[in-house]
Amino acid sequence: MAAASGAELDAALAGLGWFDMLDEMPDLAVPLVFRLLGETGAHAPVLNDVMLRASGGAPGGRLPLPFAGGSWVTWERDDGPTTALDGELPIHRAPHADPLPGAALGAGRLAVGWWLVGSSRAMLSLARRHALDRVQFGRPIGSFQAIRHRLAETLVAIEGAEATLQAAPGAPDDPGGLAALLAKAASGQAALTAARHCQQVLGGIGFTAEHQLHRHIKRSLILDGLLGSARELTREAGAALRANGFAPRLAQL
């Protein structure tokens, strides 16, 4: 994935049997592919495939996707221009569409959650390397408690989000897709936490166009808004719990 992106990577994955993997082993293929997209900084329109398959459609096409703020977008399968914050992603505004089937929405949220976790780990890796290499007052800045706290809080957020993603597919009592909703929210919040803390650790160099951090931050902001932002999803979860009057069991402890 480090050598290709966009339509080229889309074609390469199809040639490697991506559609067959979605049919035969989605629980392995989706976390692997989407986490690697985040870690490498590559992108491909394969979210369409995950959601089309979950809704009973044929992969290889595209469908309208809900975005934060009540808007809708499409993720095109070419490398055309875009007006999104992340200029590498061929995402375009779309007219309002009918709500997506619950299965498609849940599958898409888990896939984007794994992508966010991968991006978060990439940001943490950049910050950790800088903390080991950057020397101030004769010591690596990674030896300073303030730096360690930011890195540790980032790691805890990432590990927590990954745990929710791993538990969501096996939620024993989840008729409304609450587990996938919460996993996507946790992943989005972890990415925002990683962006904030890692930017502080990297300091001025993290703002430069030559450094990779800004690419991961912009990617995380877009992915957090896709299929519902962390803020919107936590509010939606709270409203559902109040309406139902109870909290379903989402993990087998």
From TrEMBL:
Keywords: FAD, Flavoprotein, Oxidoreductase. The keyword Acetylation does not apply. The keyword Methyltransferase does not apply. Residues 104-228 form the Acyl-CoA dehydrogenase/oxidase C-terminal domain. Gene3D superfamilies: Butyryl-CoA Dehydrogenase, subunit A, domain 3. InterPro entries: Acyl-CoA_dehydrogenase, AcylCo_DH-like_C, AcylCo_DH/oxidase_C. This is Acyl-CoA dehydrogenase family protein. It comes from Mycobacterium servetii.
